[in-house]
Amino acid sequence: MLFLNLKKYKDMRRGIFAVCLALLVCACGSKKSADAEMDKFVKNLMRKMTLEEKIGQLNLLSVGFDVTGPILSQGVEDKIEKGLVGGVFNTYTPDAVKKLQDIAITKSRLKIPLLFGYDVIHGHKTIFPIPLGLSASWDLDLINRTAKAAASEASADGLHWTFSPMVDISRDPRWGRVSEGSGEDPYLGSEVAKAMVRGYEQDGMSNPEAVMSCVKHFALYGASEAGRDYNTTDMSRQRMYNEYFPPYKAAVDAGASTVMTSFNEVDGIPATANKWLIDNMLRKEWGFQGFVVTDYTGIMEMVQHGMGNKTKVSELAINAGIDMDMVSEYFIDELPALAPSGKVKIEAIDAACRRILEAKYKLGLFTDPYRGASAERAAKQIMSAEKLSLSKEAAIKSMVLLKNDRQVLPLNAAKKIAFIGPLVKNQRDLIGNWSGAGSWKQAVSLWDALETSYGKGKFLYAKGCNLVDDEALRNKLNPHGGSIIPDSKTPQQLISEAVQTAQQSDVVVAVLGESFGMSGEAASRSGIGLLDNQKELLKALKKTGKPIVLVLMNGRPLVLQWENDNLDAILETWFAGTQAGPAIAEALFGAANPSGKVTMTFPRNVGQIPVYYNHKNTGRPFDATQKYTTKYLDVPNEPLYPFGYGLSYTTFKYSNVALTGQILTSNGAIEASVSVSNTGQYAGEEVVQFYIRDLAGSVTRPVKELKGFEKIMLNPGESKDVKFTITPEMLAFYNADLQLVSEPGEFHVFIGGSSATANKAEFTLK
Length: 766
Ligand code: NOJ
Prior knowledge:
22 helices, 5-stranded parallel β-sheet, 6-stranded mixed β-sheet, Immunoglobulin-like, binds 1-deoxynojirimycin, TIM Barrel, Rossmann fold, alpha/beta
């Protein structure tokens, strides 16, 4: 009987297997035939194209709303008509897109549709928290949903391509662009990169709500010296392969359609001319099949880098493997003559043109050049109730509670609360930098959210200070979208008003931080604390003796030593997006419980930078009893808030780490687990983090490396077991010969609530 059942079961399994195989073969077969059709179509088209028209496809021009460099693209419509443009960016809305697309498909000789790109970085019109904030949620599903929502809005608005995700690892918070990335960790960065690429690209470009992603900035842009934007980078291959490359590769593996080269040099050669980087690494090693675009005027800038004249840098770029020239227009000027001279092979131009035409084909532009974009679709998809609710969810989950003494948070609405600071009523800065299509007027301020929930006149308010008092800084920020107008009251008047208001209250909530333009591109800072005038306000408020909660809105880790030492609570909200106000109000009053964890180390002072958790041990690790060990005389080695740190209104207790074995064999696995309990009063989420240390290797290894994490929800009193599987592959790293190896030896496993955890177990890889 048992035998019969077993036989039936086996037959059934065989049947299912056969069906699956048939489906797979069928799917592969239909993919192959789709590829063959595309191939035929593109070949046919290219046969009809002149050399100039092929080079025209490589030309990407900026038309419309935003620019991030000199305004160079002139006579665009005429060039489109002549077939000298492959795509444009900075134009969106179905009407504006249609206007240019119609020229391409009715007036150009071969009627090849244009690609429309744009920097949809953290939402298109519904704005989500800045990427650094989103990464602090450690919620990959959430991040994926924000990318999907952004793609849905962007595609409805006529766009085909976003210049996102930015996956540059950075360990320097002086660099303003840390706001656009996922922080300092290669593993987390890779996971976020995958989630975003899949969110944008969905199941492929045949989905009208998907857009092509663009992995940027390849490579090492986040390692610019001294955190100064566009500056030189220089690093060992060891560090490149082990610490900086993984997120780019993860994004490529996840199916990213395009890659953007970075402004910086890699090994002495600008990324845009770096054949090793583009051709060897990206294409040959990683198998990237899509097209590579430069950054804004990337080819032109190589003249300043000292790589040669216009002709030379154009030759270098195409020969290195660049497909699309963003804004320089050097390809259309130079390649027509370079090709016959033999310095540039026609095959290189053909390959670039083919890759771009293939992208257009996959997008379905040869069938529907508008890809279903219409005013009706835009009205339905853009800023829908669902997307706004996602924006609020993302804002809540991105917040990080940095300090909360004596449980001053959550606030009790029955108390007298004074909201003080230039950001309490502010809307302009909430959507942060790189929110081009978003309208700050649609962002809900904290004050408006408070009035909506609690009625007018419930809370006290004072502005307290100008967001930026320093005139020189204001003059740098205002021409680029800033609208920082100094108050008609003097700084002294503003402070004394704030102090009087604070004196009437039981608790003060100071809402301070950066203006949106103080982080992002070309927004490096050498001092990353709160501005002096904001600090003066805090010092005056401190003298009132009232409990002070600091709510921060900013785009990078700040230096907060004084604030940490003197204030009662600190809530980091980043630039939280369209729904910032309601999200912050919910968190302050306990309707939501913060659960974010910082994904970039917060230093104690600028002198500690670069400071990151996965550093090497040195031959003289710190020992307080010894003089000649690695340290500063004036500040501890440890940062103020380490990677992975963040509090909750509740508390979590971790059991010791348990392992299913102490020996890991080359084809085996060990399970590491902990039990996590909610020991506080509130339901809350915890990011359980799993780190490994390789104690000895053929090259030096970091003191800890993140290898996994899980975000869990626990009610008060509830416990959960969290398990991570350790495999030899997980222990692999690039050795001195740049080979990926797992070396036998001793390892430590850490599981805890931040990178500083000491909760550890040990095992050996045989
Ligand atoms: C320059 C920036 O570096 C890049 O990230 C962006 O995508 C382009 N400009 C296009 O706006």
